[in-house]
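Q: For a teaching handout, I want to show students what a protein-ligand complex looks like in token form. Below are the inputs, and the small molecule is uridine 5'-triphosphate. Please produce the holo structure.
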Amino acid sequence: MVAKIRKAVFPVAGQGTRFLPATKVVPKELLPIIDKPLIQYAVEEAREAGIEEFIFVDSRGKSIIANHFDANPELEDILLAKGKYELLQTVQESTIPPGCAVYSRQEKALGLGHAIWCARKLIDNQPFAVLLPDDLFFYSPNCLKQLVDEYERFGGHMLAVHDVPIQDTEKYGILKITKDNGLTVIADTLVEKPKPIDAPSNVAIAGRYILSPVIFEALDKKIIGTGGEIQLTDAITATLDKVTCTGVRFKGKRFDCGSVNGWLQANIYLGLQREDINDFLLKYLQKLGFNCENDKI
Ligand code: UTP
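A: Here is the structure, written as tokens, with uridine 5'-triphosphate included.
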């Protein structure tokens, strides 16, 4: 029987340069999609998938992420006194219970692999999940839960994957596949951001993983890869003589909210899904001259 996935790592130490000047002070992970910060969507996804301990790898200037998940008794008192019970519930639901959130610091943004390595002392030699908060997914069961469900069958490293247009391979970690079962694929190598001509497939990693703790043996070596960064993909490849690597073609929609275009799309998509906003947004888009029928978006 495989171990239950109880811990998740949220790397939030990046610079978010694609969102400057918004991210000069405000962490990218706190930018809202409608009215909820990106990082909270990822935490809620993890919680629904059974995660009990939330490990954030942050950097200087990002402490307000910890504040976001802390209780805010003054605000709660005000909302209670004013009878704003729904908002009170919203505020309370955004809190992570005491002792369940831990924070580790990445001194320098040396790459995603290095960010995960910064959580090594908090993992206890157990398999763990990784969620990149700028990737936002919509589906039920959610993306991490889909991985957790398949993990029981495969073990090892598990990655959320999707088929991308071949001209886009330079934006992703790409799998070299040895077996394609449709829903799942088995990989023996990962290549970070290859040019289309060098890409071993068009199956790309999205920002959800379950990793075996064996990953730290490779990350300990701090090997520099593509872009001068310590790449998680290289570390996964380096451990494939010890564990398998399974990609799960996730169901649902994904938005790359680390880019302005993806963030904008996610806001419009969610706005059209939400009953409290849908009518207003459709009317506004129609007023601007767009002929959008909700079911076609
Ligand atoms: P990105 O490359 O998308 O984030 O990393 P970034 O570097 O902040 O973005 P840009 O390109 O400058 O706009 C994906 C995730 O990995 C984290 C980021 O915070 C983001 O959540 N990350 C990346 C780290 O925590 N540390 C790193 O050294 C690199």
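A: Two things your students might notice: The radius of gyration is 20 Å. Residues 260-273 form the longest helix (14 residues).
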